[in-house]
Amino acid sequence: xxxxxxxxxxxxxxxxxxxxxxxxxxxxxxxxxxxxxxxxxxxxxxxxxxxxxxxxxxxxxxxxxxxxxxxxxxxxxxxxxxxxxxxxxxxxxxxxxxxxxxxxxxxxxxxxxxxxxxxxxxxxxxxxxxxxxxxxxxxxxxxxxxxxxxxxxxxxxxx
Length: 159
Prior knowledge:
Layout: E1 11-22, H1 27-39, E2 44-51, E3 57-65, H2 67-80, E4 87-95, E5 97-105, E6 108-117, E7 120-126, H3 128-138, H4 142-154
Antiparallel strand pairs: 1-3, 1-4, 2-3, 5-6, 6-7
């Protein structure tokens, strides 16, 4: 059940947060790590700049996942980063219900995530990877494809 200020169709889910602080990892390794974490089922994968002890610059990595994927992601953290350990905690996530629709740009289908508030379309966002594919295929700049896709997606939102 959602709190009173949220719509009844908001989704409350218990998830796992795996995090570690790194002060000696290269940006290239971090980028590859985050990509691999998403492939292994992380719902979100972040690298957040931070200041560590003794004033050293560092990065906090955060992986949000379901319990079923936590073991593989914990192993990934230990195998593929410089950390010797991590923190894991259960967190609550509240998310709007969503559905997938599509729009057409340059004769290509682009998937659109539509977020719902009490059954009505509140906002819509085109899938970046679909827009990138259209830009490559059509030879148009990604920025232009995104603008066109966003305009088409706005038509899916209940006014």
